[in-house]
Amino acid sequence: MTTFVQFHMLTTYPLSNPNRDDQGRPKQALIGGSPRLRISSQSLKRAVRESSYFMQDLAGHTGTRTRRLATELKTELVDQGVEETQAEKIATDIGVAFSKLEKGSTNATTLAFISPDEWAMARELAAKAVAGEALPTEKELRNVLLRRADGAVDIAMFGRMLAESPEYNRDAAVQVAHAFTTHRAQVQDDWFSAVDDLKTRDDDAGAGHIGEHGFGSGVYYLYACANVDLLIENLNGDRALAERGLASLACALATATPKGKQNSHAHHPRAGYIRVERGSDQPRDLSGAFHQAVAPDERASVTALTAMAERLDRAYGLSCEVNEMDVAEGVGSLDEIAGFAAEAVRGVSADA
């Protein structure tokens, strides 16, 4: 049976604009007839990948999402003394394994998630080509270069799609929902002006610049679900790395935030309440607790969340192990939450 770890988090954001829409305003959603503020799952996953828990604790085990593998490879070869035309040909011949390249450019047409092992192999193939060895054909190159599983934790968690090589796609082991405010919340507008330090009143008394931007605040509900069996499979069976990854994920979800307008608002929120569940029952989110907006405070959100979990579990006969951290009540700690999540790996059969 598949083992799942589910994260439910409530985080209070101050006045901020961490994730903007196409007009530069906080993203929004209409839920249960009530306006809410929203943070996209894509921006949350990027914040997790850029957190210290991934960048430092999982150093050497995270991928790079880029269109510039061939461009970077060419630069490295030129720096090593390879003639530019030769360096470009070698780099482009290798780069097409991940994606088609733009016409007249060494940049790919689409982003690709590239693991450290794949980067290392690309460099090894380039070195052999410089030494005079012929590169494999394009199809053979993909089989040599690309990996279906390796030690890149973020690719194992969030998956990847390679349009040119679908057999090397990776299914995401971790699903992340859009976070949204548990209560009614609307965008507010701020009009601001800036002063030109070198302009005197004799020139004119007006501002050097005027503008406006939107912001909002609220208690956000975030849900994420990890398929532990698939995570281990994507990591090529490295169970110790899977444990480290789940612990880092728990910590990052609780502390990482998109950085939009962070210099303007200094938003650095941390989850005030965390509920982690592990077990083999089919996952279920608890967003229904907030379909009808609750009162705009964290305690009302905690009450609604736990009540929804109890009602769903009773109705569907679900049973899972639960660990909680509640800052206001002095219950639990992030270390305990991380350890609880990581322990799920030990419950997965070695034959799974």
What's the SSE blueprint?
Elements: E1 4-16, E2 28-31, E3 34-39, H1 41-50, H2 52-55, E4 64-66, H3 69-79, H4 84-95, E5 112-114, H5 116-130, H6 138-145, H7 153-158, E6 174-176, E7 179-181, E8 188-194, E9 209-227, H8 228-234, H9 239-255, H10 262-265, E10 271-279, H11 298-316, E11 321-326, H12 334-342
Antiparallel strand pairs: 1-9, 1-10, 2-3, 3-7, 4-5, 6-9, 7-9, 8-9, 10-11
What would you note in describing this structure?
It is a single chain. α3 (69-79) runs antiparallel to α4, α4 (84-95) crosses α5 and α9 runs antiparallel to α12 (334-342). Strands 1, 2, 3, 6, 7, 8, 9, 10 and 11 form a 9-stranded antiparallel beta sheet that branches. β2 and β3 (34-39) form a beta hairpin. This protein is 35% helix and 22% strand. It folds into 2 domains: 4-62 and 172-347, no CATH class; 65-151. With 352 residues, the chain is α+β, with helices and mostly antiparallel strands. The radius of gyration is 24 Å and the shape is flat.
